[in-house]
Every structure is written in structure tokens, then in C-alpha cells.
Amino acid sequence: xxxxxxxxxxxxxxxxxxxxxxxxxxxxxxxxxxxxxxxxxxxxxxxxxxxxxxxxxxxxxxxxxxxxxxxxxxxxxxxxxxxxxxxxxxxxxxxxxxxxxxxxxxxxxxxxxxxxxxxxxxxxxxxxxxxxxxxxxxxxxxxxxxxxxxxxxxxxxxxxxxxxxxxxxxxxxxxxxxxxxxxxxxxxxxxxxxxxxxxxxxxxxxxxxxxxxxxxxxxxxxxxxxxxxxxxxxxxxxxxxxxxxxxxxxxxxxxxxxxxxxxxxxxxxxxxxxxxxxxxxxxxxxxxxxxxxxxxxxxxxxxxxxxxxxxxxxxxxxxxxxxxxxxxxxxxxxxxxxxxxxxxxxxxxxxxxxxxxxxxxxxxxxxxxxxxxxxxxx
Length: 378
Ligand SMILES: *Cc1c(COP(=O)(O)O)cnc(C)c1O
Prior knowledge:
Layout: H1 14-24, H2 33-46, E1 50-54, H3 57-67, E2 75-79, H4 85-92, E3 96-100, H5 111-116, E4 122-128, H6 137-146, E5 150-154, E6 162-163, E7 166-167, E8 174-178, E9 191-195, H7 198-207, H8 216-222, H9 240-250, H10 253-271, E10 277-279, E11 286-287, E12 293-297, H11 303-312, H12 328-334, H13 342-350, E13 351-354, H14 362-376
The structure holds pyridoxal-5'-phosphate.
């Protein structure tokens, strides 16, 4: 029988299922005690004083952009090699994403290119920890401080990673995480924004609840009906049964990240002698959470063939990402064009993401590596 190996997949066990069922039998399905419990555990796991649970990674980014005070006429610098949501969050608030380059060997935001794109209108930098490797936060912090910019981390790939021993979640002014099933832990859909500043955290809390200053449960305990809508917010709340799944999943994060790192080493070993492809470079002083394992083909002209061959063999290879400035929406609304970002566009042509998730066996990894090596030379 042909195997089917997807590029990413969740790990759910009986303790997860029981945790969700306990909430379904309780009084609070949403905005109950489970939300604060998940936020508290997440604070400890990421060493970040404030955490606000929301309904998706995209909502987490949108909330961060809002909390940073970004609005019409502002510019936000974001790498083009990312998921569209990293840039869309700025557009939701009426700001303009200014796309920047990544470094060709790590695919992480290039701080020198960020510095070149700063104008009078620049308000924030969105740094994407591509594939699970933290960006150069020393350089980014220095640039942000020098120009009074807000540093936002899109850490949807990097839960469990660290920079200079400091966990992701505590490195930027605001950090966004996703709990989509392909990410490190899942709540079905879900996300979290972390920060150190208590004013920012109040803005995040208000934003996820229509811009209203108190939540339903707080009013119930205080015996009041009055509330005040201070600003335009959204319903970006995460349910209690999703939070229960999150707490249960988070307790196994450490082992899952270690397994992802082992899988990456096994791929690295298999590809070590090959001239036809290379894994991305691992930068110094960081621990890499390996949301993705990305290879770069020496001959980008071979990518379609390698992709098709792997798909035929039941291996779910993928491409992360089509540079955001090449999407029709951005070309139409912001006038971006092919050729704007030569480093990013050329890197994009040759990349391929291979299966990466804790449930992969060593045998699966060896099979994928063997198929890749055969496909690049056939
Ligand atoms: C997954 C992801 C998002 C969006 O997360 P959702 O939970 O799917 O909304 C944003 N940015 C990056 C880099 C992602 O990988």
C-alpha cells in the first residue's frame, strides 16, 4: 500500500480528548476559567508577563497591530517570504505593508534591508521566525529602538524556540502565535498574543471582545450590567474547550520540539553529501523549533519535477511561501510587482518543505529523504 505522509499534522491523544470533554460537561463553554488557565500556563512557557488568547494566529497578529496603535497612513515593514496573514494584519488597520528581503541562506528577515526601508511613516517591524528559527532580535531591537518602532514577532512557526537562551514570546514588544493543527500545539483554530507591557495587554484584551472594557464573567461576578465600548474591536475570543485542549497540548510541547529537532538532524544527515540540495542554515545562539524543514534546490528548474515525484509517492511536500507581494491583491491594491524583491523571489523558486511533525517515525524520515535524493537526480 502506498504511504501517505503529509507535510504537517497534529498529535492528539486520549488526555486531550478527556480535557475537552470535561469542559463540555461544565458551566462555561466560553470566557470561563479555562481561558485564564491557558493564558497562565502559556505565560510560564514563554516567560512573557502577559498573554491574551484569541481565536486564530491571524487574530493574534491583528490584535498586536491594533495594540501597537497602527492605523491609516502608517507603514509596517514585513518580510515578503511569509504567509499572507503577516501582512494582512497591517492592512486590516488601514496601514501599508512595506515588504522587505530575507537573508538567502536562513530565509529570516534581513535587518540591513529593514533599515533601508524605514521612512517617516514607519511604525512597526513584523519579524517572522521562518520555519521555527528566531530572527536576529539583537539587530532588530537596535533598529526598532533607534527609530522608535514597535517590534512585533510573528512567532506562528517558533513556539518553543529561543534566542540567546530567551524563549520566543519574550523577545519582541508583542508576539503572535498560532494553534492551527500544523503548528506546534493545536486548539483546532486559535492563537495567543504575548507582551511585557500591561497597557498593551489591556488593549489586546479589549480588542478581542468588541473593544468593550469588561467581559461577561467579570460583570456577572461584580453584579453589574454596565459596560462601555471604548474602541472598535472584534469577537476574537477563544472557547474554554479549545483552551483546555491548549493546556493539555502545551504540557507536551518540550518533547515535541525535541522530536522535531531529531527529525531535522536525521534529514541533515541524509542530505549531507548532496550537491543538488541544501537545508537552510542554522544561525548561532538560537534553538530552532522546526515548524518546517525546508530544503533549497541547487537547480530551481527541478522543483516542479521533485514536487510531482514526491506527491506521486504519497509524500506531501509543500512550498512556503509564495512571496506576499506577488499575490494579485497586493499587486492591485499596493502596486507591488515581480522583481521588487530579487533575493526573496530567487530563494522562493528553489525551496521545498518536507514532512515535519512529531508523529513521523525514523523510517518515514529515511523514506522521504531517499525519495527526495532519487527525485533530484532522476
Ligand atoms: C499559521 C500562520 C499564521 C496564521 O495563523 P492562523 O492561526 O492560521 O490564523 C500567520 N503567520 C504565519 C507565519 C503562519 O505560519
